Amino acid sequence: MDGGSLVRIGAGPARPRLPGWLRRPETHFESVTQLKNGLRRLRLHTVCESARCPNIHECFHRGTATFMILGNLCTRGCGFCAVPKGAPGRQQFPLDPEEPANVARMARQMRLRYVVITSVNRDDLPDGGAGHFARTIREVRAALPDARIEVLVPDFCGQADSLQVVLEAAPDVFNHNVETVPRLYRRVRPQADYRRSLDLLAFARKFRPETLTKSGLMVGLGEEPAEVEQVLEDLRRAQVDIVTIGQYLQPTRRNLPVVEYVPPERFAAWRTFGLALGFREVFSGPLVRSSYMAERVWQAL
Predict the structure, then answer these.
(1) Is 86 left (phi over 0), alpha (psi -120 to 50) or beta?
(2) Which of 32, 89, 166, 251 is the most buried (most CB within 10 A)?
(3) Which segment of 81-90, 185-194, 248-257 scores lowest on mean pLDDT?
(4) What is the distance between the alpha carbons of residues 82 and 50, in angstroms, rounded to a whole number?
(5) Is pLDDT above 80 for 130?
(6) Nearest CA among 179, 160, 156 for reference residue 168
(7) pLDDT band at 136 (very low <50, low <70, confident <90, very high)
(8) CA–CA separation, 103 vs 67, rounded Å?
(9) Where are the alpha helices (DSSP H) in 122-251?
(10) pLDDT for 129
């Protein structure tokens, strides 16, 4: 199927038709249901479910998941994300004090060798949730001393103290996604700042050089190929070690539409470009997500 084919829905503008390379026909409902039941018993969330990841059947069937801490309501309104939203001051989002220990308990039950922990944005908290992140890292480390731990963190509004709290807990990989090219931030990430994200990654490299740094971005939102290359150059200047590049897929009708389905050969070209810049790994492909196959990316290093 031609990735440039268009389909017109009602009276709205024509949109690109989903190409064959993005279709995931395999389903594993039994595995997904079983893992979801275990997560709910411990009041845990995953970004796989909340963000409606297209790889959920594959990953849950393999017995992996990305834990999402700090609750299931995000204080930001990014146009690409399906995670439920809430406004500070209108609702109270109390942290679950047992969540760090429950993440560790579930990770041990799943016998994970590589644990990925992310979160919603919690701009309503003084530290943005950094202390909760650190407690979760330490609980997982105590329960699974041989496992590697990757954290995918928000920007903590640029607070260096919060970043330091997370880094002092000694994750093996420190991940923060820039998500898109700077020109599209106002539409895609209106409450974020591209330069702040780059500064955060550079801070992590300087503060804890033994920890690998990682970032990722989506394509298909209207960026130009040269803009993606510029982002890769900016990330490399921040001494980021690992980059992921994947196709944006509209998770709900309320989210931004897909502008383009990027062909696989362009992802391959970006990987070649990134490796030539000096990244230790560039995981680039239509169905790549920041946490997808994270353990295998680690092993490849």
Answers:
(1) beta
(2) 166
(3) 81-90
(4) 7
(5) yes
(6) 160
(7) very high
(8) 7
(9) 130-143, 160-168, 185-188, 194-207, 225-237
(10) 96
Whether 258 has a pLDDT exceeding 50, the answer reads yes
Query: How does pLDDT run across 193-204, given as a tens digit for each residue?
Result: 999 999 999 999
Report the distance separating Cα 8 and Cα 4, nearest Å: 13
Place of tokens 């997808």: 292
Specify the CATH number for 25-300; select among 2.30.30.240, 3.30.1020.10, 3.90.1150.10, 3.20.20.70. 3.20.20.70
Q: Which residue has 């503060």 as its token pair? A: 207
Q: For 90-110, what is each residue's pLDDT tens digit?
A: 556 789 999 999 999 999 999
Under the phi-then-psi rule, with left for phi > 0, alpha for psi from -120 to 50, and beta for the rest, what region is 150? beta
Q: What is the pLDDT of residue 14?
A: 61
Residues facing 67 on adjacent strands? 46, 117
All structural domains of the chain with their residue ranges: 25-300
d(CA 67, CA 88): 23
Amino acid 244: pLDDT = 97
Rounded CA-CA distance 266/187 in Å is: 24
Q: In what order do the strands lie in the sheet with 242-247?
A: 45-46, 66-69, 114-119, 148-152, 173-175, 212-219, 242-247, 281-284
Q: Locate 148 and state its tokens.
A: 């590697």
Residue among 170, 165, 190 nearest 180 (CA): 190
The type of residue at 50 is: S
What tokens does 71 get? 């609750």
Token pair of 167, please?
């880094």
Residue carrying the six token digits 């979160």: 119
